[in-house]
Design goal:
Structural class: mainly alpha
Strand content: under 5%
Radius of gyration: 22 Å
Number of helices: 19
Number of strands: 2
Number of domains: 1
Length: about 425
Amino acid sequence: MKEKNKEYPFYAAFGVLLAYFSYRMVLVSLPDHLSDFNGHVYVYLANYLRKETVLRGLGEAPYCLWHLLTIFGYKVLGIPLDHSAAYVNSLFSLFSYGVFCFFLRKISDRTERPMGDPAVAMISFGLCILQPLTAEWMKVTGTGLAAFGLNPLHNPSYLAVRPFSVLCFCLVVDIWGKQKDDRYRGIFFKTETGLKKYYIALAVVLLLSVFAKPTFAEMFIPAVGLMMLFSWGISAFRKDGSGKKAFADLLSMFCCAIPSVLFILLQFYFHYLLGGQAADTGSSVVITPYLYVWRGLTENVGMSLILSMAFPMFMFLVDSRNILRSPMGKLAVVSASVSFLEAAFLGESAKMEHGNFLWPMMSGMLFLYLVALADLAALENMEEDTLRKRVPVLMSWSIYGLQVLCGVLYILNMIKM
């Protein structure tokens, strides 16, 4: 135990650095009236502070977890509004960092040679800030490269939903494992004690994610539903009695999603009908030509994807068979596919340039990074220690490191250091 305690400062050091970056990004961005932080603090949040404009606030930003916590710091704790926003942003960044550490620690502990705590801390820190590979010589100059990569660090509501999305992912993986095999011992949670409390946990965490930003649930609920419907269909086709259990499992997961679905419908009502910008402009959700919205945000969609997804794409080239064999990998791929289809075909009629249906894709990207890291941890523990094994592993970590470096440079440029 003493040896482990010596490594805790590594977690703290990266956490302090991340909190500082997150804090400074808010303070630097607030004066810019075009920044997301400025809009959320001085427009959306300001409406919540006045009784006569609360409904307007609900229409503008019905996903208000970040805003309410900022108001709590401002009104209850007496922190100046701009600093309260910065503290809350740091809080959610640290929450994500902790969840990523939890994910990697649980995955690594299942291998023969688990990662050390310094490695877990460093990789998790990188996952919080990494950005698309920047390459000006490739002539890809569209704004979508950084703004629509894995970590849109300029957007407070996405940073708020990010940790909840990973917890939902972990819960579903373990719930599915237990549903399919009663002897299953969870990867992330102790499912041998039963699933009731984990169904409740999933329902609560999913609802909190909608409270933070509904875009994750808009992707995740259909993805999980499609996979479970497919599983039920296969079980029913076998006619061996397993179809009844598969249907019962499907109903259990559907019940977990009901509160979140109802809350999303309520948010849509406030945003599109009651008093938000969408109501003012007559905007509505529309089906667009393929990639219509995305092409307005980057000159080259394909290159943007490659630069944004360089690390998981390389891992799929190296070991796609093992990734797709695991329930975790299948869930990540289906989630990413659903999110891509939403990004490709959905938009808001009066706000196409906002790209609001690209947000679910960022959560889909995150899941691909998670399963790629899990597979890389497994590859490092293969008994075979040959050049054929070492080169892909080294190249994978190099690409990941380059994306983290791009994230550091992006932040340093953003906070003008």
